[in-house]
Design brief:
Helix content is 26%, strand content 12%. The chain is an alpha+beta fold. A hairpin with a 5-residue loop joins strand 3 and strand 4. The radius of gyration is 25 Å and the shape is globular. The N and C termini lie far apart (82 Å). Bound molecules: zinc ion (ZN) (2 copies). The site of one zinc ion has 5 residues, from loops.
Length: 174
Amino acid sequence: MSSLRKLCEDGSADATRTTAHIRYPRCMERNTRQRNAIRGAIAQADRPLLPQEVLDAAQREVPGLGIATVYRNLKALTADGELQAVNLPGENPRFELVGHRHHHHFQCRQCQRVFDVHACPGDLSRLAPQGFTIEDHDLTLYGRCADCAPPAQTTRRPAVASAAAPGRTHRHRG
Ligand SMILES: [Zn+2]
Ligand SMILES: [Zn+2]
């Protein structure tokens, strides 16, 4: 049992429990719960998540979950082939479930969230230089998501903005 006890980082495990139906020490149950919550957060979001977004969602399931645990599990789930990283230029890696078919992404410039785009322009070989062969492509759309898009404009903006003059104060003497 000492080898099992070593798995427990905080030493809180009760590795000596012998009840027949409990097969693992508590720390392993907790690890499984954490991992399920992290995997579930990504599955439920249905879009690539940053580690911080995973933490925010998984904490509802496992209060007290920390960012270091999220990072460790994301790494392990990726190594196990359950998750894959989505790397957008200049961004921290996001994570999505493996097994999606070929798809693309949309990043909202307002809220920075990344969404899946289940459409593809298809054969882009006409864009390649003469004599070049395309083996794969990556496509990211940028704009505003439905939550952040401004309401449809029905009136034209006036040529001169009628902004209120700032810094003007009225004093009332009594
Ligand atoms: Zn947005
Ligand atoms: Zn494509």
